[in-house]
Design brief:
Order of helices and strands: HHHHHHHHH
Radius of gyration: 20 Å
Shape: elongated
CATH architecture of the domain at 72-209: Orthogonal Bundle
Number of helices: 9
Helix content: 55-70%
CATH superfamily of the domain at 72-209: Tetracycline Repressor, domain 2
CATH topology of the domain at 72-209: Tetracycline Repressor, domain 2
Largest sheet: none
Length: 210
């Protein structure tokens, strides 16, 4: 055995679409391992997929295209994390619990997947970019899941209808701000129990404010 690291087996053929998926999987892995979009390199994705660098350009015209694709995957996984938090709800007061679960899932994803969380918003220029192309397993994106939860508060009589318009853009920035502080700011050193306590306090504040 030599001391050199093993290289991936080079492949000359892929089923239709399989190479794109392999390159995208490699990009996702790099974002997770390297802490964000700066770690995504198209040539390295090709190396991991076992193809020549030129083959990658068949599916991604440049590095930015791969970063954008990874960002959509990250946003989809963010939506899935929020839905998973909602799926765990039991007991009464479901509308309020589903609303709070949106924020809890968002924050938990940021803490558990900091590289993907950073990547999720790396290429997004307006709110339309975080909607349909980045839908989760139910076909609803993170912003749509939040909107659904707010609509649920209205239906349950917990949020006056006249206060519903634009409520997404009050709750979302508040949760996102804490997520950023936890991922790359002065709160990144919080212990798990401290993070959970702060999450509860923040959601209480948003609940009261909404």
């Amino acid at each position: 055995m030599s001391g050199t690291s093993a290289k991936p087996t080079r492949r000359s053929t892929y089923r239709h679409g399989a190479l794109r998926d392999a390159l995208l999987d490699a990009g996702v892995a790099m974002a997770r391992e390297g802490g964000g979009p700066q770690a995504i390199v198209l040539r390295e994705a090709a190396r991991r997929a076992g193809v020549a660098p030129n083959a990658a350009y068949t599916h991604f015209k440049d590095r930015d295209a791969l970063v954008q694709a990874v960002a959509r995957v990250a946003l989809s996984r963010l939506a899935a994390a929020m839905l998973a938090e909602q799926d765990a709800i039991t007991g009464a007061d479901a509308a309020r619990a589903r609303f709070r679960a949106v924020g809890a899932g968002y924050l938990r994803f940021a803490r558990d997947e900091p590289g993907l969380f950073r990547t999720a918003f790396a290429t997004q220029r307006d709110v339309s970019a975080v909607a349909e192309p980045a839908a989760g397993p139910t076909g609803r994106s993170a912003i749509e899941i939040l909107g659904d939860a707010l609509d649920g508060l209205v239906a349950a009589g917990l949020l006056p209808p006249e206060r519903r318009p634009g409520a997404e853009f009050l709750a979302w920035p508040t949760v996102h701000g804490l997520a950023c502080l936890v991922v790359e700011g002065p709160l990144r050193f919080l212990a798990a129990d401290q993070f959970d306590g702060l999450t509860t306090q923040l959601l209480d504040m948003i609940d009261r404010g909404i």
